[in-house]
Design goal:
about 60 residues, mainly alpha, 3 helices, about 70% helix, elongated
Length: about 60
């Protein structure tokens, strides 16, 4: 397990940071009337933010 975490630590950091930012987006900016698909529900905005965090880390990772 420790080998997996150390191998993918940058991706895991991106997932966690994206999830936190997704929740903050919901909490601070989110749509209150429910018409916004992503920002009106934390159960949608957190995974969406995590996915964006995962993919954005891949942009900066060097290939071996």
């Amino acid at each position: 397990m420790k080998g997996v975490i150390s191998k993918y630590k940058l991706e895991l950091l991106g997932i966690v940071a994206g999830g936190v930012l997704g929740f903050l987006y919901y909490f601070l900016i989110g749509c209150k009337d429910g018409t916004c698909m992503i920002s009106s529900n934390p159960f949608i905005s957190v995974p969406y933010g995590s996915l964006l965090g995962f993919f954005s880390v891949g942009l900066f990772k060097k290939e071996k």
